[in-house]
């Protein structure tokens, strides 16, 4: 963490901002997919719902940790990438559902940026 003045942090790098944005987009996609699954009722598989919930919470927490420059953000990015990979796989089990396919794409994009960020922090 680089400081310009005591107690003042420098602006986020473009890579970190891109990662935060990918996390928040993924969080939104997971929340929307969960809502869609709940509206469908019994058709939603519990494994898919668990993956969506884990990914949604992990991406939100990961973005929060990066924004506040947590010393654990790198580790959180690695965990977030794993949660996103698992969620993308779960979403792909419902290939006829466009919402799930959009969610899988957001998860893949987030996993890629988080994996890259985990090695830079």
UniProtKB/TrEMBL annotation:
**Any Pfam family:** Csp
Matching InterPro entries, A to Z? Csp_YhjQ, YHJQ-like
Q: Which domain of life is it from?
A: Bacteria
- The molecule here is called Four-helix bundle copper-binding protein
